[in-house]
Amino acid sequence: MSDYIHYIIILVLIVVGFLAIKKVASCLIKSIISIVVIAGIALAWWYFS
């Protein structure tokens, strides 16, 4: 019976870890996109001014 408990705990940890990584990756992707957009706007302003 304890084997089933270990499998359930491992499954729960995998799901929680996946959700945490997804949350962090989403935040990192948004940060990278915003940095690229800001750099593009700054480059366009510098190039056309």
Would you summarize the structure shown here?
By secondary structure, the chain is mainly alpha-helical.
SSE topology sketch:
Elements: H1 2-48
Structural class: mainly alpha
Helices and strands, in order, run as H
**What is the C-alpha radius of gyration, as a whole number of Å?**
21 Å
Total number of beta strands: 0
General description of the model:
It is built from 1 helix and no strands. With 49 residues, the chain is mainly α.
Keywords:
single chain; 49 residues; 0% strand
